[in-house]
Write a structure and sequence with these properties.
Largest sheet: none
Subcellular location: Membrane
Order of helices and strands: HHHHHHHHHHHHH
Main location: membrane
Protein name: DMT family transporter
Membrane topology: Multi-pass membrane protein
Number of domains: 1
Distance between the termini: 40 Å
Organism: Candidatus Paracaedimonas acanthamoebae
Radius of gyration: 19 Å
Number of strands: 0
Number of helices: 13
Structural class: mainly alpha
Helix content: over 70%
């Protein structure tokens, strides 16, 4: 059995309980890979424009992703839903640019915490577009997780700058991209969705980057290659998780990203970790654990 065959078999469990468990694991892997990508973004030289980061991230991401495209063959890239792919490309491109801008101008933990408005958008969009039934208990868990974010943010004592508004915009459009990906995942493979998203985002950013082009040095190229690898992995993990679970269930697990952000920010960026951050992290852990129990053992 080849590596690709084993990998595909592992990511396609048959039992419902296994699907729930795997979707949770994929979300944790997404949180880790996303935090890794944003950490590398923060150490890119300040003079490098965010459009440059977007362009090179898409370029290197596609290079790392291309073996899966070759393995699947061109026939697997055929789609009957080009319009939905186009919408996802626009949302993803906008969301990525805003995200890179926000993470470069905000502390890692702060940017991650603001990013947790995304589950609220995702859950509301799931309710509006998928007509998902969301119990009051799930709503309570989602808002409990968001309460943990607010504890960390302390909004009444925090000066709101433009980067925070950009971060909120990034979350709104990213949630829209997630909903579109969920629609596509019913008929399209993960490879197909990633292919069209990345190749189109690369082409769009290649035109925009002409006005801000700066030739990066070897160090910057290596850093952005790491951003590309971690970025494509994060997209893969999230889309695969969407094929196994509902967006409203998966959304609160985005809160685990904050735990990685706090650790990385403290160890590598000398960002302080106070009692409020610890308290908020505890609330987030409790909320995600409780939600996983609800999904694995639904009430009869």
């Amino acid at each position: 059995m080849s590596f690709f065959t084993k990998f595909t078999y592992l990511l396609n469990p048959q039992r419902d309980s296994s699907k729930v468990a795997l979707s949770i694991c994929l979300m944790i892997l997404w949180a880790l890979s996303f935090t890794t990508a944003m950490s590398f973004v923060k150490i890119v030289h300040g003079e490098i424009h965010s459009l440059m980061i977007l362009f090179l991230r898409c370029f290197f991401g596609f290079l790392f992703f291309s073996p899966f495209v070759v393995k699947g063959g061109i026939s697997n890239l055929r789609t009957k839903r080009p319009f939905l792919h186009g919408i996802r490309v626009i949302l993803t491109c906008t969301g990525m640019f805003c995200t890179y801008y926000a993470y470069r101008h905000l502390p890692l933990a702060t940017a991650s915490a603001i990013g947790f408005t995304s589950p609220l958008f995702t859950t509301i969009f799931s309710f509006l577009f998928f007509k998902e039934h969301i119990s009051y208990k799930k709503w309570m868990v989602i808002f409990a997780g968001y309460l943990g974010v607010l504890i960390i943010l302390r909004p009444f004592s925090l000066h709101l700058d433009n980067a925070m508004y950009v971060a909120l915009l990034a979350n709104a459009v990213a949630s829209g991209a997630i909903i579109v990906a969920k629609r596509l995942s019913s008929t399209e493979s993960t490879v197909t969705i990633l292919f069209y998203t990345n190749i189109a985002t690369f082409l769009l950013s290649s035109f925009a980057v002409l006005w801000v082009w700066q030739t990066p040095d070897i160090r910057e190229i290596l850093i952005l290659a790491c951003v590309g690898l971690a970025g494509i992995l994060s997209q893969f993990f999230y889309i695969k998780a969407l094929q196994l679970g509902k967006p409203s269930f998966l959304a609160p697990f985005e809160y685990t990203r904050l735990l990685f952000a706090i650790v990385v920010g403290t160890l590598f960026f000398q960002e302080s970790l106070d009692q409020w951050s610890l308290m908020g992290a505890f609330v987030i852990i409790f909320a995600t654990f409780f939600l996983s129990r609800m999904e694995m053992h639904p009430e009869k």
